[in-house]
Specification:
Length: 90
């Protein structure tokens, strides 16, 4: 085991910097609670992960018309705007 000796002044500066980093991280987390997508459409799996639901619930929402999907062959795509709509309950 090794010990490191720091002057009180340096220790306080290190402590202040850590507090500042924690504050900044909390601000960043509060600003972006949802994942940011660069595209207009995401896959069904990405949608389910974003809203934390399983396939059965997703299929139910699609069937009830609460989530819009676009089919391309066997693949399902969901507009990114549906994430906000899902949480707003519209």
């Amino acid at each position: 085991m090794q010990f490191v000796v720091l002057a009180e002044e340096k220790w306080n500066k290190l402590f202040e910097m850590q507090l500042e980093l924690l504050t900044l991280l909390k601000e960043i987390k509060a600003r972006s609670p949802r994942p940011a997508f660069k595209t207009e459409y995401i896959t069904a799996l990405e949608f389910m992960a974003a809203v934390r639901i399983k396939r059965t619930k997703f299929d139910q929402l699609v069937q009830e018309g609460k989530v819009k999907v676009i089919r391309r062959g066997r693949k399902l795509y969901v507009p990114v705007s549906e994430i906000g709509r899902y949480f707003d309950g519209k």
